[in-house]
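Ticket reopened. Same input as before:
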Amino acid sequence: MYRVRLFAVRQARFFEWVYKRVEQVMILLDPVFAKIGYNRVERPIALVEKGVKTVLFDCRMCGQCVLSSTGMSCPMNCPKTLRNGPCGGVRPGGYCEVKPQMKCVWVLAWDGASRMKDGPTRITDILPPLDHTLKGSSSWLRVSREKAGERRKAKDEARRALAMAFPEARRHEPVSAPLADEPPNATPRGQGR
Ligand code: SF4
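Engineering reply: fixed in the latest deploy. New output:
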């Protein structure tokens, strides 16, 4: 598995591309997941995610995947599970202090990040502390659900802005923004729907 992990870091740019495509597909599937129920699809998707990522990245299913910020080198393989850079004990040649037979995951992370399009900027992000309650859950599902929700919210806000900008049009064509909540001042008092 260690060799595959090294391979994944060398191919970090390709996996970055794959990850973005997977995320787009998952976001497109949001209405389907919502209809089935996110709690019902959680388990099968987490199983697929675990299978794929265990082979490629030695994934430990922490539930808050940060591979795209760590050059496709999983920080949970660090014996100290450090998620914001290496400890002070990296050995000469970039080897781990605790497991001298393996490269420090953060040395690999910088290597992988330098090969990625967004890697050099993302690796400097400060990552939040690990939320252990998410362990075992699907990061793919959670992130795509959050992003789909953000897109829905942005669309609702755009509709609302349109309704606010054209009160006259709304009086004559009230169906032009049927899904937005009625802002209190969108139409003059007493003339709205
Ligand atoms: S960061 Fe978490 S979810 Fe991502 S590969 Fe590592 S253990 Fe798995």
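The chain has eight helices and no strands. The pocket of iron/sulfur cluster is lined by residues 53, 57, 59-62, 65-67, 74, 76, 139 (CB under 6 Å). Please confirm and we'll close it.
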